[in-house]
Amino acid sequence: MTSLHSADLPWQPLSPLDGRYRVAVTGLGDYLSEAGLNRARVEVEVEWLIALTDRSLFGTTPLSDDDKARLRALYLEFGQAEIDWLAEKEAVTRHDVKAVEYLVRDRLSSLGLDAIAELTHFACTSEDINSASYALTVRRAVERVWLPKLRSVIDTLRELAVAHRDAAMLSRTHGQPATPSTMGKELGVFAWRLARVADQIEGGQYFAKFSGATGTWSAHLAAEPDADWPGLSRAFIEGLGLDFNVLTTQIESHDWQVELYDRVRHAGGILHNLATDVWTYISIGYFTQIPVAGATGSSTMPHKINPIRFENAEANLEISGGLFATLSQTLVTSRLQRDLTDSTTQRNIGVAFGHSLLALDNLQRGLGEISLAEDVLLADLDANWEVLAEAIQTVVRAEIAAGRSQISDPYALLKDLTRGRRVGAAELADFVRGLDIGDAAKERLLALTPATYDGLASKLVDELG
């Protein structure tokens, strides 16, 4: 018997995000991959060089616009050559940020800018570079890739809410027949919840520090006591489009990351709720799935169209939620002035966002592949006239309060009639006609059907804006 060993196959990606799901998450790779992080590190190193020379520190003079453009090309045109160079250098340095420093120094030499080489990584600890680089890459990934996808799902939900605003449906509180709503209003609830969290995420802060080995600017002051290093550092970080954290240890404290990941996890919880609800609506026939040409639903049952988009989303949201929870729990703590637990942890930021983005992609696809079965909704309503019991006992209470009824316990009266049993339209009408209430109230109740007992459900969709 021949046994298979790992050597029998070429190297394969361990994560499905880099395998079968790569197309769905590829946009994140520009920012949250190792290469994306290193490109941002080069950007921070280059911009720090420019900031120092712009202020003519240590006898330098401001670089020409041409030299600045050539320097910025180091990160704007960052590609495979730089990726390979850094991999080889890190194999020697055993330090990723130091390898980036050496890359910038090497390119300065090729550009004829050796005179400013010693200002590369000047007075920086690795965490000055990393805090700014992670803030840049995470912000860009969220604002350019993940958040637009979330907004797209919200837009799809809004469109469905408007389209189905008048589609009356039987609610199921605790899984039991309950006061009707409309499908549009129910989907609108998810759109409103997600939009609120999306706004919170969009308004979040992305902090970085740039204050040296223990956050005190000690080396900076030793080199140039008269410079306003905190002011220069703040201007530099804010010039990158980030928020400046002035009070830190060796690391930026990661609290902005904790806030962000908790909010993204919150959004994921709402999305998970959406996935399970739509799955349930499909299972009871409220939604039918639109067949995709050539697709197989079940390997043995040809009639089936499995709700795989929503199941896939559900699973990936659980994975991403677990990762975001771990990120939040780990990153909030650093022993004394520094430990390295955050280093490995932060390398999984892209994985967490990748599974979340994959879930969003599946949800958007799934929402585009379902059709509302209004005939099923109406049949379900017509089979559950007992849901009007709430309306009847509430009207009776109003009549008692107005002095037009002598009924002593309207709730018990309706409970005896409807609890645990089905009541048809004719039986309910006879019951209403025999009630001790005013004629106008009777007319309102007799005009009600389960399909029209949906209150302001349709109008509430307008709250989505």
Describe the fold and architecture:
The structure is a single chain. With 465 residues, the chain is mostly helical. The chain folds into three domains: 16-124, Fumarase/aspartase (N-terminal domain) (Fumarase C, Chain B, domain 1, Orthogonal Bundle), CATH 1.10.275; 127-293 and 304-373, Fumarase/aspartase (Central domain) (Fumarase C, Chain A, domain 2, Up-down Bundle); 384-459, Ribonucleotide Reductase Protein R1, domain 1. Helix content is 60%, strand content 5%. The chain has 19 helices and six strands. It has helices at residues 22-32, 34-54, 65-76, 80-93, 96-110, 126-163, 183-202, 218-223, 229-239, 255-283, 308-331, 341-346, 349-367, 374-382, 389-401, 410-418, 425-433, 439-447, 457-460, and strands spanning 168-173, 176-182, 207-208, 243-244, 287-289, 370-372. The strands form three sheets. A two-stranded antiparallel sheet has the order 1-2. Strands 3-4 form a two-stranded parallel ribbon. A hairpin with a 2-residue loop joins strand 1 (168-173) and strand 2. Helix 4 crosses helix 5. It is elongated, with a radius of gyration of 31 Å. The mean pLDDT is 93. Residues 84-313 form the Fumarate lyase N-terminal domain. One of its GO terms (molecular function) is lyase activity.
What's the short story on this structure?
This protein is mainly alpha-helical.
List the topology elements.
Blueprint: H1 22-32, H2 34-54, H3 65-76, H4 80-93, H5 96-110, H6 126-163, E1 168-173, E2 176-182, H7 183-202, E3 207-208, H8 218-223, H9 229-239, E4 243-244, H10 255-283, E5 287-289, H11 308-331, H12 341-346, H13 349-367, E6 370-372, H14 374-382, H15 389-401, H16 410-418, H17 425-433, H18 439-447, H19 457-460
Parallel strand pairs: 3-4
Antiparallel strand pairs: 1-2, 5-6
Helix pairs in contact: 1-2, 1-6, 1-13, 2-3, 2-5, 2-6, 4-5, 6-7, 6-13, 7-10, 10-11, 11-13, 15-16
